[in-house]
């Protein structure tokens, strides 16, 4: 269990270091002008953050790196329930430390910019005007909280479909340890196709851990607009629904092998 705990901490640390890192890089790096803010760059960066993190930690912990994945695997794949809480704690610690590492890398730029929210999703994240179109506390950009909640459910369900398919030998199957690329590609697809309304957290630890660090670092309004619980609750619902849907619509009809 200790090795699995450390694996989840380290894997989630890598995920956030590279994921939040690409957000900070696009918005803050001195070598980039302001127009360098680019959604494609961020989605590709997050996809490869997932790929690297999964390759590094999969052999130790299974590379859940996401409470929604852990809970879904406990519901539908026999992951031991007595490991669920330790895994979630490890993921939260790794996410917090990953955000801290991003702060160390981009400290001067963050301070100069007034400590903007490069940590988490929702209203105000990634320089509100560029990302959210100046949306206020009642909307994620031009999208309501309800829409953001629904989109997080769908996005996390899609993530689970990619995760479950990547390890499903009865399905098409992936040879030569290519599973992490399917998972990373799934995250890329979710970001490109469904990322707008909510910022596609699709991972409670990915959002809440860095959000807590951002609060300590001095980023304002991370917990004052009422949004923070959406990327915590909705992905757990979406992950569970995604796992059940995969078994209802795919596993049920796969040939026995």
Beta strand count = 2
CATH superfamily: Glycerol uptake facilitator protein
* Molecular shape: globular
The major sheet is characterized as:
2 strands, antiparallel
Number of helices: 9
| Helix content range | 55-70%
Biggest β-sheet: strands ordered side by side in the sheet: 1-2
Reading off the top of the CATH hierarchy, the class is best stated as: Mainly Alpha
Q: What are the secondary-structure elements, in order, as H or E?
A: HHHHHEEHHHH
Tally of individual domains: 1
Strand content: under 5%
CATH architecture: Up-down Bundle
Query: In terms of per-residue confidence, which ranges show pLDDT below 50 for 5 or more consecutive residues?
Result: 126-140
Radius of gyration computed on alpha carbons: 18 Å
Could you tell me the CATH topology label. Glycerol uptake facilitator protein
State the end-to-end CA separation.
Answer: 31 Å
Question: How confident is the prediction overall: mean pLDDT?
Answer: 88
Structural class, please?
mainly alpha
Topology (SSEs and partners):
Blueprint: H1 2-28, H2 39-61, H3 67-76, H4 84-112, H5 128-132, E1 139-140, E2 143-144, H6 145-166, H7 179-194, H8 204-217, H9 230-249
Describe the structure.
It is a single chain. This protein is mostly helical and 257 residues long. The chain has a single domain, classed as Glycerol uptake facilitator protein. The protein is built from nine helices and two strands. The protein has helices at 2-28, 39-61, 67-76, 84-112, 128-132, 145-166, 179-194, 204-217, 230-249; strands at 139-140, 143-144. It has a two-stranded antiparallel ribbon. Strand 1 (139-140) and strand 2 form a beta hairpin. Helix 1 (2-28) runs antiparallel to helix 2 and helix 6 (145-166) crosses helix 9 (230-249). The radius of gyration is 18 Å and the shape is globular. Residues 126-140 have low confidence and may be disordered.
């Amino acid at each position: 269990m200790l090795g699995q705990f450390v694996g989840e901490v380290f894997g989630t640390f890598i995920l956030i270091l590279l994921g939040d890192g690409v957000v900070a890089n696009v918005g803050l790096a001195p070598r980039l002008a302001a127009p360098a803010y680019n959604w494609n760059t961020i989605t590709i960066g997050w996809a490869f953050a997932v790929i690297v993190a999964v390759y590094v930690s999969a052999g130790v912990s299974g590379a859940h790196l996401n409470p929604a994945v852990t809970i879904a695997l406990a519901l539908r794949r026999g992951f031991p329930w007595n490991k669920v809480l330790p895994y979630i704690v490890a993921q939260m610690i790794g996410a917090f430390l990953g955000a801290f590492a991003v702060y160390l890398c981009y400290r001067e730029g963050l301070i100069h910019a007034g400590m903007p929210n490069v940590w988490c999703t929702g209203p105000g994240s990634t320089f509100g005007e560029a990302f959210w179109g100046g949306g206020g506390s009642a909307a994620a950009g031009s999208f309501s909280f309800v829409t953001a909640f629904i989109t997080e459910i769908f996005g996390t369900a899609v993530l689970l479909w990619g995760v479950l398919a990547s390890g499903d030998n009865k399905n098409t199957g992936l040879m030569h340890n290519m599973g992490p690329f399917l998972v990373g590609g799934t995250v890329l697809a979710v970001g490109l196709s469904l990322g707008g309304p909510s910022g596609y957290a699709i991972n409670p630890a990915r959002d809440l851990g860095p959000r807590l660090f951002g609060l300590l670092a001095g980023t304002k309004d991370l917990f004052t607009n009422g949004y923070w619980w959406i990327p915590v609750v909705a992905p757990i619902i979406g992950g569970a629904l995604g796992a059940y849907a995969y078994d209802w619509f795919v596993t049920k009809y796969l040939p026995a092998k």
